[in-house]
């Protein structure tokens, strides 16, 4: 069954008896076949309820509107659900922002080129020219916008123009702090890779901080960006073992491997509709 | 909601449209609240279907029989399901078999004593006296049966007597090969810990084999026991990094840590009804 | 060659040309055979130099004093070394402090009983009676001293009496804060296990902090205790992967596994003279 | 101190008293400063001895010949050493062989471009045209030679011509079996990445074998190539956790990540002279 008939439903509501039955019953009577179903409740009774369903419906994409209408009336309103329905074939559009470090960017471009990142990459935006050649090799537009204290507003306006039709922005080691206005406008739609195991080592130069603290593991954290620097909901983290022999430079090199993997997983989960944000935390249906 | 009202349903059948709806609808109309649901299909269409549901039903355990009857008639027969329904409060009874190495055994006794292994340990059986003191400290009966080529049948008969009311046997480094009759009688009810990353290093002294091969990781494998030595369905595996400096003795020591963890996870998953065997493989709903 | 003839030399000095030659030449001319040698320099030129040598000398332990004298005069003074020489057969004496959680304590007692922790355990000290039975099963003295705000000084005096001939104290989840006087008296001789990946989540109830932050890995840190709570030199760290499904209780359970392993490794390295503290960091020659 | 004055010495001989002293004394009296020293002995007494020393000598590279002569006469002959001395600035020349899968190749080209793989890549050789564009983007020559049963000898002759001045060949998923003549000619100078945790799953399509066996971890192995397929000395291995949900395709994708990392580490260690082959095993001084 090709992906054109496949859709995903993400749901968040108060936990009540009968939700699984209501959703699966609705889909069954609509002619859909559930191919994947995950759910999670924060408490045994009366907590928050989260669900992700993937299903195949031969009448998709034509009957998307009627399916949506029916689901709204017959299920979502009854349970007061926050929900969204996505067609797998409607690939998300993403833009990548980067400064000079290429490792996280290259990992994404590379996986995308190999068909392992099911989304469309609209463009790469940087505040430096350095990576133009590397990006254009993948036939992806590369835009440069310089950012300085007094030009940040204009730069962000320019970025907003370039990414106007994008669904998500990925900061693949973009070393500029985005304004609160910008991050609010793109709330839970900007993914950043921070080069430490948050909440350890927020702020600048975390590998130097890690070196000075003498930690025995270094890590990376992919998270949604909020106005609070390095404090947004964590999507994914990983670490590697180090010892006293590692210089700051070597920590950075090893850390770059972790950053690549962690960011790539986070972006994949986002474009596959596997993440629901809940307060300052994420539910990830891997 | 206390565990006395909680039950688990494990299902295996041919994949068809409507199974989730049928099961969740049945539970909803029976007054149950689904607290956990996992499913897996081997193929997008027409494969094997597996499901694990945990639910709370205030009328349990009293209405277990009627629930079972109704499920059989209204759901299971229609979809030709292999299934089983377990009450969480009916803890499984397990027996542990061991020879002289105590690490895997101690890990299980210890977790059990701490309330982390929800089952009843009926007894520990060994072909040596060595571990009597360690076991009896936990107030668990310790039986010894010597095994020699010509006494194996009698020994297994004796074991069968001791474990007559047990649900599962755990070989926590039991160094005797069980007869084909015995393993068939207890099919998919004996869990063994093999001290290598199977299928590498089947047979005797896998740490020596690993040493001689010069592998850079050593591992352990928990699996169900079949008549084919070291070939039964794998439940869990893990590894640790080693290098050329490790002697065979050190590989054994480090490996013992992996064995303890891997076996403990496998036994936990079994007693929590998280495993469905399918051909020579396992579906584990963690 | 039995361990009675084996010794370990730990050295820290300014890096200069010829140190390896001086030490290895001295040992060779003293009749010793080097069985293990590790070194580390903080900078390519002119940094701090660290060395660990294990050697066998048939005249040990009898000639320990003359060896020490000669090394002092002929090598150590010339290079202004901080150093210590230990006989492997002179096992370190350790005391374990614990409150109510038994997992870290049991791991140490268990490894010790199995011959995997080459030291003598003088006693276990607790501020609660709870673990007496578990400890005395290992034939190790168990002392209880209640600690309250106004009795802390007296309690520490009592502890000091019990551990007077000990080389190192291990806090295996001891939930009392030691006074600055006490930690200074035992500087770099108290090992604590903190139940988080430091420097994340210092202070109380780190698993709850981790839960509220929504991290995707939880960890544990073994460190030397200083007057600055949770800030002493880190010896070892490790983590385990978690997801949104883990309750605080489950984080604690999984975390307990990490704590056990991390503390056991740290104590082993300490008693095998593998750790040199350097500022607020450790050099660990694994 | 720049790398032009830095050299590495690898030694293998019978263990005897005084080797460290002899080597470090020789280097000291030659005016060298040891910056790194690792050693390993297979037995406490009388085994095989291995050593890796990195040192800085201001008179290098000019005095390389006299240093070599002196070392031979004064140290190596006395201890009957197998040894080699390499200047760090004389970067090794490597050639990469690949078929159609690009992931392992790209990882190497990418690290090389970023300065993380200190060697010269002479060329990439393939039996397919597919990866020409990707390789030439890095300004590295790309050669294609078709291989069929009856043309294998000619193809290998052609390859030999292209790689005549290379020090090591890396099979980055090259799907042709090299002849015994070829592998003997390049003994311990061909590194292959096998897509399983050897010795499990030798031979073709290991991910399918892993799928059918139902293993819970998949891995990759970098090893030197010998005439015995998939049996040469193991350099490095790693694994990733999987479960029953992974299709063969997904195992391949996840496995590709492990392959990339494992091969990159093995090649790095080889070009940094960190590996000594000993029988069918490797000593790796990380």
From TrEMBL, chains A, B, C, D:
CDD domains: ACT_F4HF-DF, FMT_core_Formyl-FH4-Hydrolase_C
Domain ACT intervals: 8-80
GO function terms (MF aspect): formyltetrahydrofolate deformylase activity
Enzyme type, top EC level: hydrolase
Keywords, ordered alphabetically: Hydrolase, One-carbon metabolism, Purine biosynthesis
Nucleotide-binding is among the record's keywords: no
Entry annotation: catalytic residues: 230
Pathway per the UniProt entry: Purine metabolism; IMP biosynthesis via de novo pathway; formate from 10-formyl-5,6,7,8-tetrahydrofolate: step 1/1
A Pfam family it matches: ACT
PROSITE patterns associated with the record: ACT (PS51671)
Catalytic activity: (6R)-10-formyltetrahydrofolate + H2O = (6S)-5,6,7,8-tetrahydrofolate + formate + H(+)
Hydrolase found in the keyword field: yes
InterPro entries, per the entry: ACT-like_dom_sf, ACT_dom, Formyl-FH4-Hydrolase_C, Formyl_transf_N, Formyl_transf_N_sf, PurU, PurU_ACT
E.C. number(s) listed in UniProt: 3.5.1.10
SUPFAM superfamilies: ACT-like (SSF55021), Formyltransferase (SSF53328)
Stated role: Catalyzes the hydrolysis of 10-formyltetrahydrofolate (formyl-FH4) to formate and tetrahydrofolate (FH4).
Family stated for the protein in its record: Belongs to the PurU family.
Name listed for the protein in its UniProt record: Formyltetrahydrofolate deformylase
């Amino acid at each position: 069954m090709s992906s054109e008939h496949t859709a995903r439903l993400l749901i968040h509501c108060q936990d009540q008896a009968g939700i699984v039955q209501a959703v699966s019953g609705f889909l069954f009577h609509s002619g859909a076949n559930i191919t994947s179903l995950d759910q999670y409740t924060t408490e045994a009774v009366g907590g928050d309820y989260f669900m992700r369903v993937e299903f195949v419906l031969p009448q998709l994409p034509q009957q998307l509107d009627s399916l949506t209408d029916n689901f709204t009336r017959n299920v979502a309103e009854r349970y007061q659900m926050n929900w969204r329905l996505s067609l797998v074939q409607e690939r998300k559009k993403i833009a990548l922002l980067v400064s000079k470090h290429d490792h996280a960017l290259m990992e994404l471009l590379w996986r995308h080129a190999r068909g392992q990142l099911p989304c469309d990459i609209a463009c790469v935006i940087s505040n430096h020219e350095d990576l133009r050649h590397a990006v254009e090799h993948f036939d992806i537009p590369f835009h440069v916008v310089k950012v300085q204290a007094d030009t940040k507003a204009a730069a962000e306006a320019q970025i907003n123009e370039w990414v106007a039709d994008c669904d998500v922005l990925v900061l693949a080691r973009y070393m500029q702090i985005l304004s609160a206005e910008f991050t609010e406008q793109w709330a839970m739609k900007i993914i950043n890779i921070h080069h430490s195991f948050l909440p350890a080592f927020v702020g600048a130069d975390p590998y130097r901080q890690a070196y000075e603290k003498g930690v025995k593991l270094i890590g990376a954290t992919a998270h949604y960006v909020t106005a609070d620097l390095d404090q947004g909901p964590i999507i994914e983290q990983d670490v590697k073992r180090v010892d006293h022999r590692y210089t700051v430079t070597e920590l950075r090199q090893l850390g770059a491997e972790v950053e690549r993997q962690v960011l790539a997983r986070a972006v994949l989960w986002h474009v596959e509709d596997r993440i629901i944000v809940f307060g300052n935390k994420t539910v990830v249906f891997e």
